[in-house]
């Protein structure tokens, strides 16, 4: 098999030769600029939101009443989103194999947070949802609906999820995936 760029002999299990594959993997390409920007934005916005939420909690603790519970929930979730986004950014820019899995976790957790936060605010505290809140919900869901399937199509993510599920459901077995193989194999841990 020949390299699709320079016609030199391609590496095993690749469409590129060694030099072209190094160039191909050296930078972020195509649509992956959007997740990169989103990860950086998620880090800064969740850090800022954590700070603002904590400031409101501390300064208005006596005046917030029952809203303290919602504010505490938001602070905890913003902190978790910050941690996941920071870890995902490290994986993303080091081009680790677990990046798609953690990016999916970040998107799903952020979507669930937005849904639960708006539902709690509306149903428990009777806060009226205006256009800005609904736009936030719509934007978050559309972004997740686009990028989660994109990263799920990536074969390594499928097998990481399968391995995680197998480890949870069958503690004595390890699911392995050999590149080039058509199906994951199951073997005993011993």
Automatic annotation (TrEMBL):
Spans through the membrane: 31-49, 69-93, 100-125, 131-153
InterPro entries xrefs: DUF2569
Protein name: DUF2569 domain-containing protein
UniProt keyword annotations, A-Z: Membrane, Transmembrane, Transmembrane helix
Cleaved signal peptide residues: none
Coiled coil: none
């Amino acid at each position: 098999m020949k390299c699709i760029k320079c016609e030199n002999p391609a590496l095993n299990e690749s469409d590129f030769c060694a030099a072209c594959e190094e160039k191909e993997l050296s930078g972020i390409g195509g649509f992956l600029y959007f997740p990169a920007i989103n990860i950086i934005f998620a880090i800064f916005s969740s850090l800022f939101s954590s700070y603002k939420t904590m400031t409101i909690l501390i300064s208005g603790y006596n005046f917030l009443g029952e809203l303290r519970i919602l504010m505490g929930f938001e602070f905890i979730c913003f902190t978790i989103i910050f941690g996941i986004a920071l870890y995902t950014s490290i994986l993303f820019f080091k081009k680790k194999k677990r990046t798609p899995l953690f990016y999916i976790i970040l998107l799903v957790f952020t979507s669930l947070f937005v849904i639960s936060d708006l539902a709690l605010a509306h149903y428990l505290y009777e806060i009226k949802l205006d256009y800005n809140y609904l736009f936030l919900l719509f934007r978050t869901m559309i972004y997740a609906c686009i990028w989660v399937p994109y990263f799920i199509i990536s074969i390594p993510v499928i097998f990481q999820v399968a391995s995680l599920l197998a480890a949870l459901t069958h503690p004595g077995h390890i699911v392995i995936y050999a590149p080039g193989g058509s199906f994951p194999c199951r073997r005993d841990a011993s």
